[in-house]
Structures are given as C-alpha cells and as structure tokens.
Write a structure and sequence with these properties.
binds zinc ion
Length: about 130
C-alpha cells in the first residue's frame, strides 16, 4: 500500500518511485492524484514529491522556523535586518497559501455540516438544562 502511494506521488524520497514509468491506477492512487489536483488548485503549484518530503528539505525547515517568528512579530530576531530575499518571499507565500488552505477547510466543514441535516430556524435558541 505504501509503495502504491509513493509510486502515485512519484516522489524521489524512496530512491526509486520517481524512476518508474507511469502511475498506478488503483483507487488509492487516484485519490492521491485528486489530492495533488486539490493542492495545485489551492497553492498554484503541483507537488513533485510526497507531502512529507518537504520536511526533509533544509530550506523548507528554515521557512517554517522563520514563519513562527513572523507570526509573533519577531521576524527580524530570526533573520536579522537584511534577510535573504528568497526567505521573505517564501514566508509571504507560505502565509498566503496557509490562509487559502484554512479558508478552504472552513468551507468544506460548513458544506459538510449543511449536508448533515436541517439547521435551526434563524433566531432559535437551544437551551441546556440540568435537572435533578
Ligand atoms: Zn516522498
């Protein structure tokens, strides 16, 4: 199963999946391809590796660290007064994409809750009472 998923991603992290020709067309592999399409739609670029490969990339690790400082308003503590321009752009890109991904997650959750059933009419109030 893992090999099938790796092959669908064609990720080089196992040293061979990216060299095999074609993709598997199982249901699970199609789901992976659907995920790649969703990631491309939200981020503007299609991943060329599995989702975990980025965590082994030292530049990705640097951007994630810089982002934590950025969120706290302490970016200059991390990168000084003259940061590498690529890192500034990367943090900005990550911030924007994260916002789009979170907005999409909220939209999906709202859609799912609407599918679950009828909602209370506007103005209705649910009261909880503890008896006894
Ligand atoms: Zn991988």
């Amino acid at each position: 199963m893992r090999a099938e998923i790796r092959r669908a991603y064609r990720c080089p992290c196992d040293g061979r999946s990216h060299r095999q020709h074609g993709r598997v067309v199982s249901r699970r592999a199609r789901a992976v391809l659907g995920e790649l399409a969703a990631v491309e739609k939200l981020t503007g670029s299609r991943p060329n590796a599995c989702p975990w490969a980025g965590f082994y990339d030292p530049e990705v690790a640097l951007v994630l660290q810089a982002y934590d400082f950025f969120l706290e308003g302490q970016a200059s503590e991390f990168w000084g007064n003259d940061p590498p321009w690529w890192m500034v752009l990367a943090v900005r890109h990550y911030h924007r994409v994260l916002g789009r991904v979170r907005a999409d997650a909220i939209k999906l959750a709202r859609k799912k809750s609407e599918e679950l059933g009828p909602r209370l009419p506007p103005g209705a109030v649910v009261e909880h009472r503890i008896q006894g």
